């Protein structure tokens, strides 16, 4: 699958909740529900885990109350890194930084969990890189 980056810098193609990934591996729904609960403190029932990404109009996304989608869509940007108000309050509230989360746990987070539950969502570094390379000096 080609890389698909969301409006806030997350990688849909790597997300176990992305609809094509759910269709290919429906057994992962319980895994992702448990992983999100462990690392992010929220639980979504496995049967409710499916997302079509934020680029689809009228299709369900996992976060129906995403604060970033309306802003980026109205601005006509591809993602938050194109905005002159980068990093705004809406984006700051959903940035994922693996190192900050790892610091909350006594044991290292296993590599398999990092790949499943962090790599798709580590938007802080991804957007910072895009923002830095998009700047014209």
Describe the structure concisely.
With 137 residues, the protein is an all-alpha fold. The protein has seven helices and no strands. The chain has one domain.
Describe the protein's architecture and organization.
The chain has 137 residues and is mostly helical. It has one domain. Helices cover 39% and strands 0% of the residues. It contains 7 helices and no strands. The chain has helices at 19-24, 28-40, 69-75, 89-92, 98-102, 111-117, 123-134. The chain is globular, with a radius of gyration of 15 Å.
Number of helices: 7
Estimated helix fraction: 25-40%
Name the average pLDDT: 91
Taken in chain order, the helices and strands follow as: HHHHHHH
The major beta sheet can be summarized as: none
Based on Cα principal axes, name the global outline: globular
Q: Unreliable runs, pLDDT <50, ≥5 residues?
A: none
Q: What's the layout of helices and strands?
A:
Layout: H1 19-24, H2 28-40, H3 69-75, H4 89-92, H5 98-102, H6 111-117, H7 123-134
What key attributes describe this structure?
137 residues, globular, 7 helices, mainly alpha, 0% strand
């Amino acid at each position: 699958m080609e890389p698909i980056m969301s409006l806030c810098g997350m990688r849909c193609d790597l997300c176990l909740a992305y609809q094509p990934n759910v269709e290919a591996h429906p057994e992962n729904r319980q895994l992702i529900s448990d992983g999100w609960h462990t690392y992010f403190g929220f639980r979504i029932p496995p049967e409710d885990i499916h997302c079509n990404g934020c680029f689809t109009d009228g299709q369900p996304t996992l976060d129906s109350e995403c604060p970033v989608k309306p802003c980026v869509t109205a601005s006509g940007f591809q993602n938050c890194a194109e905005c002159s108000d980068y990093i705004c309050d809406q984006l700051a509230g959903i940035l994922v930084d693996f190192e900050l989360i790892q610091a909350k746990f006594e044991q290292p987070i296993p590599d398999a969990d990092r790949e499943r539950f962090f790599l798709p969502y580590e938007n802080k570094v991804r957007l910072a890189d895009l923002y830095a390379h998009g700047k014209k000096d």
